C-alpha cells in the first residue's frame, strides 16, 4: 500500500513538488495576507504587546513560518513603526524558492531561538500526515479522532510535533492561524469523509500526488494546542481581530470615506463568519501571559 504521508510530502516538497517549484498561495487561493495590510496591522499590535511584556528587548523577532510568497512578512516589515521597526528582525521561513523582500531574511529552516512573535499562517494545514479509513488502531486517532468503520481521517500527529517544536523555540508568543476542527465535532461524525482536499488556480480539484496542485487538510487545533502545552487560548479570527482593533466601520466624507469604506470591506472579509473570520487562532504565551496579549474571548467554534 502506498504511504499517503510520503506521497503527500513528495507532491508538495519533493524535487518536482508543488511548492518546491515555486507555487505561491496567491496563484491558487485567496488568503488573509493578500486582502490588504490589515492583518499585518493587527499582528503588529499583538507584536507590540509581546514586546512590552518582554521588556522591549534590544532585538525583536517576527518569524513567518510557511511564508509562501512572503506577503505577510513584507507587510509587517514595511508597516512596523519607528522605535519597534528599528529593533525588528523579520524572518520568512519557507521551503520554496527564496524571495527578495526588503528587510526580510529568508530561510528554509526554523530559527533555533525566537524572541518575539512566531506565526504559522496556514502552515499547519500544509504539513502532510497519514490518510486513513476506519477502523484504525493509531494512538493519535484513539485520543483525538475515534473512527467508525468507513470514516476517513487525517492523523494529525505530524502537525502536533511540528507545532510543539516551533513553540519550544520561542520566548514571547507563538500563533497558529488555520482552518480546522475540534474533537467533539470529529467524534460526532461531522468530518466522517475527512477533510483532505486539493486546489489549483483558485478551484478545488481532485487530489493527485503528482505535484500539480496544493494538497491540504483541516487542522486539529485542539490537538496541536495540547501537544505544545503551556499558557494558551484558542479563539476565532473574528474575535481576535476585533480585540486587536480591527472593526469594519467606514467614517469620514468624500475621498476619505471611500478609502475608509474600502478598508472596512477588507476588514469585514477578514472577520466574516463562515469565511476567514472562522479561522482558529491558537495563541501560546511563552514567558509571557496570554492574558497580557488578548482579553478574555469566546472559545473557538469552527
From TrEMBL:
<keyword id="KW-0489">Methyltransferase</keyword>
<dbReference type="GO" id="GO:0035243">
    <property type="term" value="F:protein-arginine omega-N symmetric methyltransferase activity"/>
</dbReference>
<dbReference type="GO" id="GO:0032259">
    <property type="term" value="P:methylation"/>
</dbReference>
<protein>
    <submittedName>
        <fullName>SAM-dependent MidA family methyltransferase</fullName>
    </submittedName>
</protein>
<dbReference type="InterPro" id="IPR003788">
    <property type="entry name" value="NDUFAF7"/>
</dbReference>
<dbReference type="InterPro" id="IPR038375">
    <property type="entry name" value="NDUFAF7_sf"/>
</dbReference>
<dbReference type="InterPro" id="IPR029063">
    <property type="entry name" value="SAM-dependent_MTases_sf"/>
</dbReference>
<dbReference type="Pfam" id="PF02636">
    <property type="entry name" value="Methyltransf_28"/>
</dbReference>
<keyword id="KW-0808">Transferase</keyword>
Amino acid at each position: 500500500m502506498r504511504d499517503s504521508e510520503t506521497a503527500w510530502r513528495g507532491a508538495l516538497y519533493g524535487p518536482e513538488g508543488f511548492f518546491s517549484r515555486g507555487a505561491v498561495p496567491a496563484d491558487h487561493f485567496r488568503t488573509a495576507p493578500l486582502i490588504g495590510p490589515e492583518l499585518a496591522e493587527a499582528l503588529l499590535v499583538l507584536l507590540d504587546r509581546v514586546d512590552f511584556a518582554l521588556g522591549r528587548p534590544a532585538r525583536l523577532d517576527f518569524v513567518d513560518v510557511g511564508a509562501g510568497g512572503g506577503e505577510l512578512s513584507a507587510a509587517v516589515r514595511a508597516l512596523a513603526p519607528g522605535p519597534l521597526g528599528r529593533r525588528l528582525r523579520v524572518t520568512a521561513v519557507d521551503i520554496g524558492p527564496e524571495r527578495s523582500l526588503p528587510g526580510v531574511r529568508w530561510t528554509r529552516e526554523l530559527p533555533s531561538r525566537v524572541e518575539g512573535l512566531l506565526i504559522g499562517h496556514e502552515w499547519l494545514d500544509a504539513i502532510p500526515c497519514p490518510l486513513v479509513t476506519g477502523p484504525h488502531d493509531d494512538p493519535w486517532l484513539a485520543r483525538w479522532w475515534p473512527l467508525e468503520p468507513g470514516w476517513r481521517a487525517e492523523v494529525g500527529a505530524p502537525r502536533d510535533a511540528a507545532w510543539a517544536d516551533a513553540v519550544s523555540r520561542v520566548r514571547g508568543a507563538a500563533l497558529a492561524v488555520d482552518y480546522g476542527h475540534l474533537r467533539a465535532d470529529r467524534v460526532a461524525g461531522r468530518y466522517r469523509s475527512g477533510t483532505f482536499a486539493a486546489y489549483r488556480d483558485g478551484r478545488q480539484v481532485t487530489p493527485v500526488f503528482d505535484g500539480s496542485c496544493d494538497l491540504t487538510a483541516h487542522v486539529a487545533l485542539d490537538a496541536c494546542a495540547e501537544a505544545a502545552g503551556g499558557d494558551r487560548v484558542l479563539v476565532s479570527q473574528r474575535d481576535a481581530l476585533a480585540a486587536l482593533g480591527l472593526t469594519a466601520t467606514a467614517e469620514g466624507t468624500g475621498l476619505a470615506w471611500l478609502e475608509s469604506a474600502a478598508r472596512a470591506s477588507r476588514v469585514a472579509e477578514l472577520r466574516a463568519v463562515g469565511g476567514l473570520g472562522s479561522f482558529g487562532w491558537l495563541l501560546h504565551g511563552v514567558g509571557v501571559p496570554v492574558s497580557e496579549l488578548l482579553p478574555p474571548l469566546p472559545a473557538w467554534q469552527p
